[in-house]
Write the structure tokens for this entry.
Amino acid sequence: MKILEEIEMRDETMGAPWRRRWIAGLCLLLGVAMGAPRPAAGAEPFVVIVNAANPVSAVTGDQLSALFLKKLTQWSGGLPAVPVDLGAEAGARESFSRAIHHKGTGAVKAYWQQLIFSGRDVPPAEKGSAREVIAFVAANRGGVGYVPAGTPLSAGVKAVDVKP
């Protein structure tokens, strides 16, 4: 109530344009606060891994994106690619999505929802932990995944360089 009284008093002394500027400024401030991109909670660096038998030692970000979006289904030697994602709540997943797909995890999930509902494809398997991703990649010769940087890797997988 006190704020409205102040506005009315300022309107009388400063004129109606002040009120419009004040409301426009408030709307702008609220719009920026609500729509401003924010870093993902828990976002963290990641390492891309492949099965140890895969001859690949480096891959581009575009190739990785195509593999994970299933636009590319084989490695260069003809080996079928089997991508695996961490769960949506994982910080490394958000980091991976932004770095590789140039979109947040939510946008990538929306892409998959469209493909699922149209009956065209299903997303990569999702695993709840880095340990599960490592086990999945180790068990699939064409496996590719990512884990938080610093995660100990087993003998069945290897890290690959991601080129721009």
